[in-house]
Amino acid sequence: MKKLFLILVLFLIPQAAQAEIRLDLTRGVSEPMPVAVTSFHATAPQHRDFATQIPQVISANLESSGLFKPLNPRAFVQDVSSIAADGPRFGEWRAINAQALITGSVTTAADGRTRVEFRLWDVFSQKQLIGMAYMTTPQNWRRIAHIISDEIYKRLTGEDGYFDTRIVYVAESGPPTKRVKRLAIMDQDGQNHKYLTDGRDLVLTPRFSPSRQQITYMSYGRSGPRVYLYDINTGRHEELGNFPNMTFAPRFSPDGNNVIMSMAQNGNTDIYEMSLRTRKPRRVTSNASIDTAPSYSPDGRRIVFESDRGGSQQLYTMDVNGSDAQRITFGKGRYANPVWSPRGDLIAFTRMYQGKFYIGVIRPDGSGERLITNAYHVEGPSWSPNGRVLTYFKERPVGPGGSGRQAKIYTIDITGFNERWLRTPQDGSDPAWSPLNP
Amino acid sequence: MNAQRQENKQASPEGSMKGPFVKSAVFHGLIFIIALVGLPFAKKEPVITAPLSVELVDISELSQTNKQPPPKAKPIEKPKEPEPPKPPPEELKKPEPIPEAKEPDPLPPPKPKEEPKKEPEKPKEKPKEKPKPKPKEKPKEEPKQEDLFSSLLKDLTPVEEEQKKQNQDAPKPDDGQIADFANQISMSELDALRAQIEPCWNVPSGAKYAEDLVVTLRLSMNRDRTVRDVRIVNNRNDSAFRAAADSAVRAVRNPRCSPLRLPPEKYDQWKTIIINFDPSSML
C-alpha cells in the first residue's frame, strides 16, 4: 500500500508544478470592427473639400463591406490638427471604442500635384499598421479614396480589397411588354453611372473580363441572339464568332484570352470555347443533354456548368477539355448559373426549389452547400474580384395584377450577412463585377 | 525414516500451496485496488489541461457571466455609435462628376513621424479591478453545480469526486499535495475566462479557408490581471493569418475584456496563459 501512495504522489507532482494555463477558444463573435475615420488634415483652402470628402468615401466603403463600423465623428475627442502635430492619443480613441484609426493629410507636392497621405493605426497596440502617400490630380480624389479603402481593407482582413472596382449591369425601363434593356456601368458604390448601349437591342448577361476593359454579353442583334464583345475604352461592339445558331451564357477565362459560352442546336445545347486571339471556336462538351452556363475555375483548369444529363438540372465540374465530369450538387429542385469564385474556394449558384429562388454557395468538391439569400426571383450571382462579396438581382411582381416586374441589384457578404441594395437610376438586373481598376 | 520422509513430502506440498494462495490473493487485491483507485490517476490530466466538457459547463457559465459583460458593453457602445454617415455619396456627386483619369502614383509608405507611446490608461482598469471578488466567488460556487453536471460528463466530475475520496482516505504525506492542488486553476475558472474572452474575439469568418486560421497566443500576465505582453506562437507569413492573428490579439487587448477574470491568489498558475483561437467548429 505504501508503494501505491508513492505512485499517487508521483502522479500528482508534475501537475502541481505546471505554471502556465492553456485555453482553447472555439467560439467567438462576428461583428463589424469599430473604426474611426478622421477628416484629413489640410492647410491649403483648395484641399479642404478633399480632406473631408476622401474620408467620407473611405468610411462609406468600409461600412458597406459589413466588416467595419465607422464611428460617428462627433464622438471624436482629438482633433485633426492635433493628430497631425502630435500623432494619435490612443487612450482617447480607445475610450470611444475605436479599434482602428485612419488619419491622413492632403497637401501640394513640390511638382504642383496633389499629395494624399493616409495612415492606419491599431488603437490597442498603439502602432501604425500602414501608411501610404499618393501623388495625383484633384479630379482623381474619388479613386484615391477607393484605393486607400482597399489598402485598409487588405491590411485589416488579409484579403485584397474590392472598392476600386466597377459593376456593369442591365438597366431596365419601360412597360413589361416593351422593356428597354441597356448596358450600364458604375463604380461599385453606385457613383459615376453611365450607359454603354442605347437600348435599341435587348442585352442580357454582361460579364466583365478579369484582365481587360472588356465586356462580353448576349444581345438580340441582326443575326438573332448572339454573344458580343464590347471594348469599354474604344466603345466598339462586335459579334463574337460566326455561329450558325443562338449563342448565350458567355464568360471570360481567368486570363481574359478566351470566352466560353453555349450554343443551341437542334434542341440540344453544348459548351464551346472561343479564343479571342484566333477567333477559333472549340467544342468542349458533346452530350445529348443540355450543357450550359459554364464558368472557369480561377486556375483555368476546370469548368463548372449546369446540365440535365443526370435527369434533373444540376451542377457539374469538368476539365477544360470536357473530360472527367463530376456532379457536385445533389439537392432537390434545380441548380443554375454557377460561378466559380476568383478566390477558388467556392462556387455560387442559383437554386430553384419549391417555387422559390435562392442564391447559394458550395465548395468545388460538392460539400458545404449554403443558401444565403432567397426571393420570389433572385438570380445571376457575380463575385467581387476578391471573392468575398456577391452581387445579384432580385425581381418582384409589381403593378396591376402583378403583371410588371421590379428589378433591383443587391450585394451580400459570403457569410450570408450584410445584404444591401445597390441603388441604380432605373431598374437593374444581371450585375457583373469588374476586376480591380487598372 | 521412510515414513518421516513421506510425511515431509506430504507436508511440503501443503506449505507450498499456501504461498501461491497468499501471493495470488495479494495480487488480485492489488489489481482490484488499482482498478478502483488507479483509473482516476489516468483521468486526472484533463483537469489541468483544457476540458472536453465545454458544452454543458459553458451554458451554465454563460448564463451567469454574460450578465456582467453585456451591461458593460452595451452602454458603452450605444451612445457612441449613432449611425455611420451615409449622406456622403450624394454630396460627393456634386463637386466632380469626373470618372477615370490617370493613375495615382503609389509611394512607398512614409515613415511614421512619431510612434506615440502614451501609456495605456490604467486608471480605467484599476477601478474595474475592485469588483474582482465576484469572479472569485463564482468559481467557488460553481464546482457544486459542475458536480451535478459532471455525472453526465464522463471525464470531469468523477475525477474530482474520486480525488476528494482519495484525499479523505489518504494519510498525512499527501497534505502538501492537497495544498498545491487547491492552487490549481479550476475548470470553472478556466470556463469563466473563456466566457469572458469569447465576446471579444471577432472571428474572421468569411476569410478563405478561415477554418484553418488557428492562432495560438502566449500571454504574459501582470499581477493585476492585465496583459503585459502577447506573442504569436505559431506565426505564419501570410496576410490572412496576420489578419486572424491581429484579431486574436485584439481580443485579449480589448478593454472590454480587461482585466481578465482570474483568481488573483493563483497568479503563479496564470502568469503565462496560452490561448488557442480555433474557429474551425464555427465554420
What's the arrangement of secondary structure elements?
The complex is a heterodimer of chains A (438) and B (283).
Chain A: H1 2-17, E1 20-25, E2 33-37, H2 48-64, E3 68-70, H3 80-86, H4 90-95, E4 100-108, E5 114-122, E6 127-136, H5 141-157, E7 166-173, E8 180-187, E9 194-195, E10 203-208, E11 214-221, E12 224-231, E13 237-239, E14 247-252, E15 258-265, E16 268-275, E17 281-283, E18 291-296, E19 302-307, E20 314-319, E21 326-327, E22 334-340, E23 347-353, E24 356-362, E25 370-375, E26 377-383, E27 389-398, E28 404-413, E29 420-422, E30 427-433
Chain B: H1 2-48, H2 54-65, H3 69-80, H4 88-93, E1 105-107, H5 122-129, H6 133-150, H7 157-169, H8 175-183, H9 187-197, E2 215-221, E3 227-232, H10 239-253, H11 267-270, E4 272-277
Antiparallel strand pairs in B: 2-3, 2-4
Helix pairs in contact in B: 1-7, 2-9, 6-7, 6-9
Characterization of the model:
The complex is a heterodimer of chains A (438) and B (283). Chain A is built from five helices and 30 strands. Chain A has helices at 2-17, 48-64, 80-86, 90-95, 141-157, and strands at residues 20-25, 33-37, 68-70, 100-108, 114-122, 127-136, 166-173, 180-187, 194-195, 203-208, 214-221, 224-231, 237-239, 247-252, 258-265, 268-275, 281-283, 291-296, 302-307, 314-319, 326-327, 334-340, 347-353, 356-362, 370-375, 377-383, 389-398, 404-413, 420-422, 427-433. In chain A, the strands form seven sheets. In chain A, strands 3-2-4-5-6 form a five-stranded mixed beta sheet, sandwiched between helices. Chain A has a four-stranded antiparallel beta sheet with strand order 9-8-7-30, with no helix packed on it. In chain A, α2 packs across α5 (141-157). With 283 residues, chain B is mainly alpha-helical. In chain B, 55% of the residues lie in helices and 8% in strands. Chain B has eleven helices and four strands; from the N terminus they run ααααβαααααββααβ. Chain B has helices spanning 2-48, 54-65, 69-80, 88-93, 122-129, 133-150, 157-169, 175-183, 187-197, 239-253, 267-270; strands at 105-107, 215-221, 227-232, 272-277. Chain B is elongated. The interface between A and B is large, with 97 and 108 residues. β1 (20-25) of chain A pairs parallel with β4 (272-277) of chain B, so a sheet runs across the interface.
